[in-house]
Predict the structure.
Amino acid sequence: EAEVAQSPRYKITEKSQAVAFWCDPISGHATLYWYRQILGQGPELLVQFQDESVVDDSQLPKDRFSAERLKGVDSTLKIQPAELGDSAMYLCASSAQTDYTEAFFGQGTRLTVV
Amino acid sequence: SQKIEQNSEALNIQEGKTATLTCNYTNYSPAYLQWYRQDPGRGPVFLLLIRENEKEKRKERLKVTFDTTLKQSLFHITASQPADSATYLCALDERSNYQLIWGAGTKLIIKP
């Protein structure tokens, strides 16, 4: 069964360092999402791509976060510099652009900033 | 302001009973409402979708209802099992840009 791949699974970094997360969506899925989830809360959308274009990055802290999906397939989310408050689960999801938006999630990257 | 509310307290249910979880929303007009299951340390997994013109949807032991007048969806698990213990998230789609808006989830605990 097709899955969304994310790496790394866990990441510990010191504050002010740079960190990057990678996501490979399900083949053929045009829409890719990056979410941040804090324990006890629902996923918060950071950025949404349609193919290689950004559809929505209104919640992305652009002074330190960046995201790209150069060829409209896999994607990278970067944080530089990392802050203590960035500690969270970072989830990637993809969906086919059909008449509804069932999202398929990866396992996530658990980031701890120390 | 726009809100999606799910019970923040954990729901404890005896094995074999029906578990009912609630999702209320305000100031949205969703085209679809979806329910996901999330286990600790993992990403959410899609369970069911219900459209605005549907009242009820079933899948095996799962049932979802959608009342657009009350702005509420109920999620039922019948004959609950300890393996059903997880956090259940509701998410709605405002039809505009394939974007889901998420509730905070309700933790369900099924006791043997």
